[in-house]
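PROTOCOL LOG
Step 1. Enter all chains and additional molecules of the complex.
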Amino acid sequence: MLGSIYGLIGLGITMVFSVTGLMNFAHGDFMAIAMYLCLALYTRFNLDPYISMLLVIPLLFVMGLLVYHFLFQRMIDAELLMVIQMTLGMVFIIESTLQILFTADYVNVPNFAYGSRFIMGPFVMSGSYLVTFLIGSSVGVALYWMLQYTDLGRQIRAIAQNREAAMLMGIQTHRVQMIVFAMGIALLGLSGSLTTSIITLQPYMGLDFTLFAFIVFVMGGVGNFLGTLVAGFVLGVAEALGALFIGGHMGGLVPYGLFVLILIVRPQGIMGAR
Amino acid sequence: MSWTFFQEHKKRDLLFLAGIILILFLPSQLSTFWNRTFAMIFLFIYWSSAWNIIGGMAGEMNFLHPIFIGLGAYTSSLLYLKLGISPWLGMFVGGIMAVGIGVVIGWICYRSGLPHLSFALICLGFTHIAVIIAFSLKITGGSRGLMIRPAPGLANMQFATMAGYYYMGLILAAFIVGLSLWIERSKIGYYLKAIRHNEMAASAIGINTVGYRLIAMAISAFLTAIGGTFYAQLVLYLDPPSAINAMVIFSMILFCAIGGFGTVWGPVVGTLLLMPIGEVLRLYLWTGLHLIVYGIVVIVVILFSPQGLVPWFQKYAKKKG
Amino acid sequence: MLLSVEKITAGYGTVAIIKDISLEVNKGEWVVVIGGNGAGKSTLFRVISGLMKPKTGKVLLDGYDLTALPSHAIVELGVIQVPEGRLIFPRMNVKENLLLGGRNTRAKPHIASTLEKVYHLFPKLKERETQEGGTLSGGEQQMLAIGRGLMALPRVLMLDEPSLGLAPIMVAEIFKTLHMLNQEGMTILLVEQNVVMSLKSSQRGYVIENGQIALSGNSQDLIQDERTKRAYLGT
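Step 2. Run joint prediction.
Step 3. Record the structure below.
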């Protein structure tokens, strides 16, 4: 069920990478920021995360713009190793700051049980999961539609396919890159807010999200937008199955194992690169 | 040779000698805390340099090292606890196992020409898997962890005072710096540099890229695992999240980045610059503050001197001289 | 004088690829820049289009200084480049490629009618409207690239080696089309290795050798001139 979220997060990274060539290891940490923001808003103002979402998303978009402008813009053509390193530095900063501000405790789910329980026929599903799935999927579809049929979407795809040609078309590549990056971060705001009620929060979870996002990214075929969404879904299902049939710690291995397997068998990812 | 040249040389050599004497006699003057801290610092210099061999010299973003550390630490400790085998021997076993895993994973990935990014991800994935496995196996003590009973004695690789660990750490660090210097000047280092800069071009001119990357991986894995054993003996307690820890390796990579990837002294400079501050911060101020400092420093360094501090310094020295 | 390049020196790092190049193109003219490989022709185009900043010199459009402008602004002003190697968007279809060409503010209002005109000029493109760019043949890609350039309603149309890798029949086709456009008043700046065809169709030409202008003058004169052949082959 969380597959749609994985797809979204992965899509964020895919878009950013295709358009800017940047690999942001701190990606997941922004999602963590979003979740902690929801937590803070909840503890201070008693705001339901689904409402906080409306605040968090624009906030994260702006954050993305700022971070890109001051940090990432200079790194566009730099060596990949260096970019990764810089983003790792950001990971350190963000995760430690979160830890200082919110303590290293695991903050638990029950605080946020705002979804009711839906009973659909033989399936009993937690309301939060359902909402997450619905919103996640629709946003995913909307994004895909945007990429294919709007002018901005075309610009994004153009830059992703050939940056110089895009510049010759009069596309303002710098601006679009910044917007795409900010969109990626804003997507995290969305994902974070939606899953605040579902996932246990702890300061160092950013890296896990990043890892998952990258797995989705690579599995879907590097740069392939549709593939990323599909891969996200597949991984979500795999995780659910793993938890169901194997359970416990080992169950968590299933998605990773699946990832490794698929990569070895078909290095271009499920739907092939680009 | 003019007299001034001789004088200058003599000055420099004396300073050098003084430095060495200082390092050697320091432990007796320092508190246990500081000796231990230095031991950790040396360990990190050691680990960073070990990572540098595959990460900096061969240019490969490799995150498998937590697994190597874990293997080294757990193997030697388990052999010691269950079979009474001295960690001095156990560490070699751990090292060999690390090499095994590293080479197998490396071979699978290098052969299929996996892009660097995918490889890095797979490494992270495996690390994650390793942590989960360590949690699940009973023999590794699960989440309760392993405790090694203090039994000081050289045979058990335990030292009565922290000074002993200090010296051992120093030896390890010195050893690896020497090794790195040797590798850098050797044929292997030369090929690795070529691979780092352009793998396709390197293989096109006949360098066996897969082979050399595996060699670098093996060396790095082996040495890192030995470091793992030392770590186990220093801390005397192991549990999966601390032994197989992504943050540790990210810190190591960070030190390399700050000092300069691929240079011999880079990891040393990076570690020496940041770690002492970090350890002090960790103790006296909020936990986690040190990581923030690391993060800020690395970002600043990258934005201003992307190659790291050592190359910057070399360029600067060249300009002056 | 519509487009003029004044004493441009540009290169990568400390290496100057073109030194002190000056040339001019008048409205409605077809000017050709000839030179062998590595002579610096593409570098010149990159500077004009704003993809690269020159170390010294200026690029002027109708007296207006383009040199410091970002590439999208230069496109807005109507200086359109059909780049070397076509550089079409491989995973977008023909129509999308063309639409992307026409998105600058000057051209956008007329985009529908311009599209019709381009299809009229290149019927093959209309046939393959929904086909992905990467699957087209070399000649078709070149047509697409030119069409895309035309969609931008250029005031100056720059083409970088359009004949590269094309069969002679295709090359003749392309030149015929360019000739027709020029007759209708299009200002063309062409960079080519194909000396004969380019000099035959253009009014004036420049010969670049080792990053500098070696010769210039009327195309008819240049064709006869021995030095043209030497400069070109000598590179």
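Step 4. Note key features.
The longest helix of chain B spans residues 3-29.
Chain B touches chain A through 44 residues (CB under 8 Å).
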